[in-house]
Amino acid sequence: MSLLQALAILAAGGAAGAINVVVGSGTLITFPVLLAFGYAPVVANVSNTIGLVPGSVAGAVGYRRELAGQGRRIRTLACATALGAATGATLLLTLPASAFKAIVPVFIAAALVLIVAQPRLASALRRHRGHAAEQLGPATLLAVFVTGTYGGYFGAAQGIMVLAILGLALNDTLQRVNAAKNILAGLANLLSGIIFALVAHVYWPAVGLIAIGSICGGALSARYGRRLAPAPLRALIVAVGIVAIVRLL
């Protein structure tokens, strides 16, 4: 790994950590960077997943005030997320690498659609939250399980999916819903990352650089992220995502 590559991976980790806290989909920054430097897709995905875990922890700490009083609901949702993440990680490790290369461009394209549609989703969630009772029934838990599976397998824009689901299910402010989203998305990364670390091929130098960057980005984003203009951020993520699709194809 050259110095330039190391700096680029470190910077990508910082950007991804910041984006994950306020939007989700930071994987669309780090994953294409690793692909561009010649890492195999599955190795890039595994290394990226592990590297982003510390940034999720930093973001959760930054949102600790918004997490107050959410322990019971998060424990319930975390069980569904954990089962999903284990399922997704198992699928990644058991399916052939060719399946990953075929499936992930579709996932990235779907993630980009979600990112573009996020303003409308957020508006719909705000209208819904004003009068809806909290719903943590089987349908919500199943949806969270599915997003956990997606997160364990790949994870780009998992946070946006979780935010949409929780926004419909929870009668709470958007910032508190976002704090819960950070916990669940981080949990999916953590559990799948543990599985990957035990049985998969991981490129640890890249993991370390992404981890350092994501911690800095996650901590700064939790403090200042609410001030970021969302439109340029979405445009950047979409551009990087398109590059990733082209690279994989």
What are the main properties of this structure?
249 residues, mainly alpha, 11 helices, 83% helix, globular
Would you give an account of this structure?
The structure is a single chain. By secondary structure, this protein is an all-alpha fold. It has one domain. 83% of the residues lie in helices and 0% in strands. The protein contains 11 helices and no strands. α5 (71-94) packs parallel to α9 (174-199), α6 runs parallel beside α8 (158-169) and α7 crosses α9. The two termini are 24 Å apart.
Structure, briefly:
With 249 residues, this protein is mainly α. The protein is 83% helix and 0% strand.
> What is the helix content?
over 70%
The ordered string of helix (H) and strand (E) elements is HHHHHHHHHHH
The secondary structure category is mainly alpha
Radius of gyration: 17 Å
Our estimate of the beta-strand percent is under 5%
Distance between the termini: 24 Å
Task: Give the overall pLDDT as a whole number.
Answer: 83
**Number of E strands:** 0
How many domains comprise the coordinates? 1
Task: Note the overall shape.
Answer: globular
